[in-house]
Every structure is written in structure tokens, then in C-alpha cells.
Amino acid sequence: MIIDVHSHIISPEIVRRSPMPASLGDIEGAIEAKQDAGIDLTIVGSPSGASTMVPADCVDGYQRPFDQLRSYHDWLGGTVQSYPRNLRAYAYCDVYADEKSLESTAEILRDPAFVGIIANFSGADGYLDSSRCDDFFAMLAEVDVPVLLHAGPTPACGNGVTDYGMLEMVARSCDATLGLAAIVLSGRLEQYPNLRFISSGSGGATSALADRIDFAWKPAHWDDWIGAQRRSKKTSDLPSGPPARLGVGGRTNTAPSEMVRKLFVDTTADGPELHLANLRVFGPEHILFGTDAPPMPTVFRDKVASIRALPITVAEQERIFSGNALEMFDIQDITATEPVTAASR
């Protein structure tokens, strides 16, 4: 059994009014192509709510009128009901959502068609270490579902990037890297130890930088300057240097290089290099099969073959293909109200 935890579809109403790859509207075509490659179930969602990922198509980057977002979720839930053997869905939630929107997200998740939340690594002016996200994290702890973190149409790190191709393929990977580091340094993984975050984009460069984040937490190379600052009674006598906050460390009490291993990543990266790095840092127990297709022009058989080619056991392959997802998501067979398992497929 293979479960694709990262894919997108768009409603006909959005297709009519917005620019997007045509594949996002071809639901049956995507299902058939995946079935041909042995992919049984796909979890779909929109990382931009009731809009597309084109920045010009968004209002304030992420926000849409409440009724539009609710209409999109109604369509998405109905679509899953039409393909109960092939689809499940994520409910979109703005990380800066107000109380009404957070309550609506919790309500949507009562529908068994929805098995998780899709949210962004960053908002228009910051990352998930912002106090503006406190209510979002409190809601996540209450609903207790996995969260697919995905770059939004205008990631915070993309400010000043005018080439859309670079924004889409490079800045959004940088957003994943910064977003995961912000979560780890913020202490939220200690505050909410049961939260489960899956990073799209295979975690960006997190596996390459996991140990280096420790220096952002406790920058030993600034110890001399920090010591002088603390010993001085006249701050005006100090040479100019980094902000006073430097050296205090993040809000996590545990080394980020250890905390980062609580995160999960998908397999959307192309080529074996990042998969191998992720195996070293996260292990096969924290990697889930994901294609980002639609809209990415993925050859599904090649994607499946790339995971089978990794230097891991067959049992570890099966964890990546479906075992981890089945443990993480409450996936019910909508037609029979029975849990979906590898044997039942």
C-alpha cells in the first residue's frame, strides 16, 4: 500500500477565475495515474485556502473571505466523498487565524473526509515562533491531528524575489528551512510535545543544517562579547555588536539538533541526496511518501522507484510508503466506517 501525503486539487470555481496548472483540476486523471503506479490513497489540500499559489491571486497573501474558504472546504469534503477509496483531505488554516476561523477549522475536522490540517511555514510578517500564532498552536493541541506545513504564496523569506520561478522552486524551500528552525527554537515542540508536523519540500535544507541550528540557540562564538556586555556597567562603553538578545538562546530547553528529530518530512525532493540526508537525521520512521503532484509533473512510477532504490530495508520502505501515515492519520474507510489498513487495501 502507498499513501501520498502531499498533493493538491482545486475546485472548478477557482479554476474558472484563477491562473493555475491545468493538472490541479484533473482529479480523475491524477487518481488514475497514481493507481497505475501503485499509489492507493492521496491526502489533498490547498496551502493558500480558497485561492491559488500565484501571489497576485491572493488577498493579503493568504486571507480570503470566510464564506469563500468555507465553500472551498465544502467542495473538498464532497470531492473526497466522491472518491472515498482514493482521497482524504487537509483543512486549511491560516496560522494567524482569528477565533471564528479556528473554531471553523475544528468543526471541519469532525468530517471523516478531513484527516489533518495544512498550514504555512510563515505568514506575511513572520514565522511560527511569533506570539500571533499562540492561538493556532492551542487549537492544534485540542484537535490532535497531523499538520502538513507548506510554503504559502508569499513566504516571508521571499520578500524582494520578483522571479516567480525562483520564488516557487527556491524561496519556498528556504521557507521550509526557516520555518522548521523557528518552530524548533521557539520551544513549541516542548510546550506541545504531541504535535505532529510534516514538512513539505522534504524539509528544505533542515537535514543539512540541523547541527548548525545549535549555534543559533547558544552562539559560543559570541561568548567573549556577551561576557563583556554582562560585566560592563556602562553599556555605552561597549563596542557595537549583535543585539543583546543574542546568547540568551531560544525558548527551547533542549538542543535544536535533538528537537528537530521530532519533526517529519515528505519525499517531494528530486534525486537521492536529500533523501539520504533525511534518513540520517530523521530516520525512516519520520519520512512519509509525498509527491506534490498535482501540480508538479511527477512520473509516479519513477517516484516510487526512487524510494525503493534507497539503501534501506523493505520494512523501512513500507514505513515510508504507508506505515508512518497509517500510524499518524486517523484514516477511516468512509464507505464502511472501518479503519484503513494495509491489509484492507
From TrEMBL:
This is Amidohydrolase-related domain-containing protein. Residues 3-330 form the Amidohydrolase-related domain. Keywords: Lyase. Residues 231-252 are annotated as: Disordered. The keyword Hydrolase does not apply. SUPFAM superfamilies: Metallo-dependent hydrolases. It comes from Fodinicola feengrottensis. InterPro entries: ACMSD (IPR032465), Amidohydro-rel (IPR006680), Metal_Hydrolase (IPR032466). It comes from the Bacteria.
